[in-house]
Design a protein that fits this description.
The chain has 872 residues and is mainly beta. The chain has six helices and 55 strands.
Length: 872
């Protein structure tokens, strides 16, 4: 900046010596200025071209003043008065008055006082991204030194104000009694830190000496001997300060401390850890990566060594918990023919129930963890060829059974119409004949967490490859009936089989696993015919309901699968009974059927909708509403079955009510066969015994209702809930991430609210209800197995007060379900939250207060009582 100001000073000397149009000067600021200012600060070429000299200025100089621009040659001063502005390259200065002393190479900018005695037009200085707004400023254009009074500036998320500032050069500024805060109200912040001495290197760092914290202008005992803040627009590495605390079960702790590595613009890494005085500790690594138009993702690893009790005393335990999460999303623009994605959530079954750093009841109540890493590619030829490779994982957190596919391979050739015309138009059954080819190969492992990553996990591994070639056609008959017919040929390869023998000494069937290649082939035939029937009833034009339309889709299907008894062997038990079995039982692809399947199926799908007058329309327009989304029946009859040839009658239905706010889904199953006196199903129709057409064996109904004060929108819950397998609503409560409590419990609300709204009786709220009822009557037990109601909601009690709750009641077990209460207070630059689960094995409470801004996120205090891991 010093170099730029020097150019301006040199310009003044040149113009004074060469400009003959300056006749006199006037020291009265109210008189008119007799200076040709347009030529004095001409924005075009200011010097004549000289082949031996460079231009005096590097850029265009712009200036203006509302009242006057005055040049005093005797005192070597230029004065710009009232709404004065001076611009040069990236240098910008605005103020009530600007005085340039080109003899001393000094510039002064100050405010003005209006008729009421109030100061206005404070100086505004900007160079690049740095902005300073002081009461007045004085600086030397040669040395770059400056004195600034009551400076105001913004450095990143932090606002800075100082009584006196001294600028040593372009890159160093010293402060005396500097106040810094993240509050946007810099003149009257709700809190600030007072540094008696400070140093700022713009875009690099801000260093302070002794610093104290003030709240509402009241000093607090909180202080530090020095502080360091990086000031840069780029990511920088640095220490993450741990949060201290005390836990009744594990003693004192330091939590979420570590180091952040700003590795590049494309990826980063954070390593965090916890330590408890009873010996427990935890380690975590978190990384995010992204490349525009290519991909983005996150990768997290967590390990916890959890100790409870004292060694040598009852109740002592030591467990290890771990969790790995990886999410990779490929941008759609990255490749048109290939795609790679991953969604991994793998780890200990009890991690989400006993974690030291995460309370996520939605994930705790979820009984499965699943993962998938896949790559797919399409070969753009005719016909298209698709293939995909995937590694998958599925884990039951209750039984600790783990299912892995290492790997799974799929390939397929697109549908081929060998008899279709070249123009692509296909008519009739012959031209619609088509076939496909698909291949699926899997290597599956089923094990438990005890044997995971050990050699025993491969003892039960099964592998196989299935080839399928479906051949089908479709056509219409009598114009209104659609017919499909087809057959499927399958060849299955397996790499292990089972041989069964009966041991007469132990009277048990023994199974011997045999490794080696084996195969079998199957085929079947299927066909179906269906149509669509419409029925419309029209009302009078004056009725609110204009018309009702009933849509029916009846269908009849037939399927035939022969017996494949050639793939079956026999053994004899100790009673002389000959037992059939297949060596392909319990293999990857299973055994072919030994019984003939010759069945016919019946189905009827219904939907009902109405045309009603639209209340919102002023022209009398109509709109369609759904009365029944579905109302479907299905059953089948197997001619080849020895008994119970008629399958149960299945019924499902669903609708939405109250402008789609209430979702209703229901279903039932009816058995046409009767029970004997012991309530055992017998091969006799109920109607034959005078017990009705069929008896209901089960039924269920679910209701989901969601309503809010803002156009019935829903507010998202914590990301941690969904990411780890929980629900996408807060019926099971919101997750609490103890390592990142700066995020609001109720999500980010970008709507700006003022305090005046407190008196407008505006209370934003949302409410969700879920009800489930299941009835079972397989053996005449007539039992309600599920009958529960869940409810959750959030409400803004005032402009900056939020409250939320989640609870429910199980009418079948007569108990209250998971209950959580949440409170949050917006304290301008701070956030305060409190959540509690008062009852149950997941009972806990957590209190947090801290600064919202990430630059001062370590200024916080949290207190908690975690759930007892021994009860989960």
């Amino acid at each position: 900046m010093s170099t730029k100001i020097n150019h301006i000073v040199f310009l003044f000397f040149f113009l004074i010596a060469c400009n003959s149009k300056i006749y006199s000067q006037n020291t009265n600021p109210k008189d008119s200025v007799q200076v040709n200012a347009n030529e004095l600060f001409a924005t075009k070429t200011l010097v004549k071209k000289d082949s031996t000299k460079k231009p005096l200025l590097e850029g265009i100089v712009n200036r203006k003043a509302k009242d006057y621009e005055k040049l005093d040659q005797r005192k070597k001063r230029l004065t710009l008065y009232n709404e004065a502005e001076l611009h040069y390259i990236d240098f910008e200065l605005k103020s009530g008055i600007i005085v340039l002393d080109y003899e001393k190479n000094e510039v002064y900018a100050g405010r003005l006082k209006d008729s009421t005695g109030k100061y206005t037009q404070y100086p505004y200085f900007k160079q690049g991204d740095n902005v300073i707004e002081p009461d007045s400023i004085r600086f030397n254009t040669k040395t770059g030194k400056a004195l600034i009074w009551n400076t105001k500036s913004k450095q990143g998320d932090m606002f800075l104000r100082s009584e006196v500032s001294k600028r040593e050069n372009d890159s160093v500024i010293f402060f005396k009694k500097a106040r810094f805060t993240t509050s946007t109200n810099i003149d009257n912040p709700e809190y600030y830190f007072l540094a008696y001495k400070a140093k700022l290197v713009p875009k690099k760092k801000f260093v302070t000496g002794l610093t104290h914290m003030y709240i509402a202008d009241v000093p607090t005992p909180i202080g530090v001997p020095f502080a360091f803040f990086p000031m840069t627009n780029k990511n920088t590495s640095g220490v993450i300060i741990p949060a201290p605390g005390q836990n009744n079960q594990r003693g004192y702790f330091l939590q979420n401390g570590g180091y952040y590595f700003a590795l590049s613009d494309y990826y980063d890494l954070a390593i965090l850890g916890d330590y408890y005085t009873n010996g427990s500790y935890a380690l975590r690594s978190e990384t995010s990566y992204a490349k525009r138009y290519k991909y983005n993702g996150t990768f997290q690893t967590r390990y916890e060594n959890q100790v409870l009790g004292e060694k040598g005393f009852p109740g002592y335990s030591r467990t290890n918990q771990y969790n790995i999460q990886w999410s990779h999303i490929q941008d759609a623009k990255a490749s048109a023919n290939s795609r790679f994605s991953s969604s991994v959530n793998f780890g200990s079954s009890k991690y989400f129930r006993q974690s030291l750093n995460l309370i996520n009841v939605g994930s705790s109540l979820n009984n499965t963890l699943s993962s998938s890493i896949s790559y797919s590619k399409t070969v753009p030829i005719v016909p298209l060829v698709n293939f995909a490779v995937a590694v998958t994982h599925n884990q039951n957190t209750n039984t600790e059974v783990v299912n892995l596919t290492l790997p799974s391979f799929n390939a397929s050739v697109d549908r081929v119409f060998p008899f279709a015309k070249q123009d692509g138009i296909k008519k009739g059954a012959f031209q619609n004949v088509n076939f496909q080819y698909s291949l699926r190969g899997d290597n599956r492992i089923t094990t438990t967490e005890e044997f995971l990553f050990k050699s025993q996990m491969f003892d039960t591994a099964v592998a196989g490859i299935a080839h399928n070639i479906p051949l089908s056609t479709n056509f219409k008959i009598f114009k209104h009936f659609s017919v499909t017919a087809g057959t499927t040929f399958a060849e299955n390869w397996v790499f292990n089989t089972n041989e069964k023998t009966f041991n007469t000494l132990t009277n048990k069937v023994e199974t011997t696993r045999k490794n080696g290649f084996d195969s079998y082939r199957t085929y079947n035939f299927s066909s179906s015919i269906g149509t669509t029937i419409y029925g419309t009833y029209t009302f009078k034009e004056t009725n609110k309901i204009q018309a009702i339309r009933h849509l029916m889709r009846p269908s009849i299907s037939y399927g035939y699968t022969p017996s494949f008894n050639q793939y079956y062997d026999q053994y004899t038990d100790n009673f002389g009974n000959v037992i059939d079995y297949s060596r392909f039982e319990n293999t990857l692809l299973g055994a072919p059927g030994i019984s003939v399947a010759n069945s016919i199926g019946f189905g009827l799908a219904n939907s009902l909708e109405a045309k009603v007058l639209d209340k919102a329309s002023k022209t009398g327009a109509t709109k369609k509403i759904s009365l029944l989304n579905q109302f479907n029946f299905s059953t089948a009859y197997n001619f080849a079955a020895d008994s119970f040839k008629l399958s149960p009658i299945n019924f499902i239905g669903g609708t939405t009510l109250f402008d789609n706010k209430l979702g209703v889904n229901f279903g039932a199953q009816f058995d046409p066969y009767d029970l004997d006196e012991n309530n055992v199903r017998i091969d006799e129709f109920s109607i034959s015994n005078g017990n009705g057409l069929a008896r209901m064996t089960s039924s269920n109904i679910t209701l989901n209702y969601s309503v809010t004060s803002n156009d019935f929108g829903t507010e998202k819950t914590s990301k941690q809930t969904v990411q780890n397998g929980g629900r996408d609503d807060d019926l099971f409560g919101a997750a609490t991430d103890l390592g990142n409590q700066e995020e609001s419990l109720f999500g980010k609300n970008t709507a700006k609210k003022s305090q005046t709204e407190l008196y407008n009786f505006k209370f934003p709220w949302d409410l969700r209800l879920a009800y489930s009822l299941t009835y079972s009557n397989n053996s005449n037990q007539s039992e309600i197995t599920t009958n529960s109601l869940m409810v959750s909601g959030n409400v803004d009690l005032a402009v900056k007060w939020k409250m939320g709750f989640s609870s429910g009641y199980d009418f079948a077990k007569k108990g209250i379900t998971y209950t959580q209460l949440r409170f949050e207070r917006d304290l301008e630059s701070w956030r305060m939250s409190f959540s509690i689960v008062p009852i149950g094995v997941y009972s806990y409470w957590n209190f947090f207060i801290g600064i919202k801004s990430s630059i001062l996120s370590d200024i916080k205090w949290d207190k908690r009582k975690l759930p007892d891991p021994r009860l989960r």
